[in-house]
Amino acid sequence: MYRYAALLRGIAPSLPNMTNDKLRGVFEGLRFEHVASVLASGNLVFHSTETDAPMLERRIQRALHTELGIAGGTIIREHAELRALLDSDPFPGLTHGRGTYLTATFLKDGATAPGRLPEPPDPRTRIVGYDTGARVFLAVIDNSVPGNTPDFMSWLDKTYGKDITTRTWLTVQRIVKKLGS
């Protein structure tokens, strides 16, 4: 049995069809086991015997669209990929907070990885690296000026399209914890 995290794009928990219980219901209807939500922003963990992540992404997205009308993207990562990412300590000495907002932007399985790291247009955003195992950009955003946060996610969408989703480093840590060490 494999442990997976599903990172859903475009989830607004305030909308009736995007609540955690409805999202979990779709996953349970797909016969996944140990389905659980992590926070209220489209992060689910589950167990499955299936090993083809791109196929899982397509299957889950099709069910979300058919059953709940959710058109956003689905990105799957296996527990071992996320555990290795955490163990690599990509943000040494940094703590998530104002001025050091740590983010992880996951690329959909099959998306083209960058040949070289892009240069963000705002100097308050620093790309730390790209982890090939987890297929994720790691960045630090300086949001210390209230009301003037760099629009990093919009820039990523324009640069890489909609086959990405961003999570805070704290959320990634919570997901891995929920999956179990």
Structural features, described:
- With 181 residues, this protein is an alpha+beta fold.
- It has 2 domains: 79 residues, SP0830-like domains (Alpha-Beta Plaits, 2-Layer Sandwich); 95 residues.
- Helices cover 30% and strands 27% of the residues.
- The mean pLDDT is 88.
What pattern of helices and strands is seen along the backbone? Answer: EHEEHEHEEEHEH
Fraction of helical residues: 25-40%
* Alpha plus pi helix count: 5
Q: Which structural class do you get from the secondary structure elements? A: alpha+beta
Cα Rg? 16 Å
Count of separate structural domains: 2
Kindly report the spatial arrangement of strands forming the biggest sheet: 2-3-1-4
How many beta strands in the DSSP annotation?
8
How confident is the prediction overall: mean pLDDT? 88
**Approximate shape:** globular
Estimate the strand proportion.
Answer: 25-35%
- The N- to C-terminal Cα distance equals 15 Å
Biggest β-sheet description: 4 strands, antiparallel
Give the uncertain stretches in residue-range form: none
Features:
181 residues, alpha+beta, Alpha-Beta Plaits, 2 domains, 4-stranded antiparallel β-sheet, 27% strand
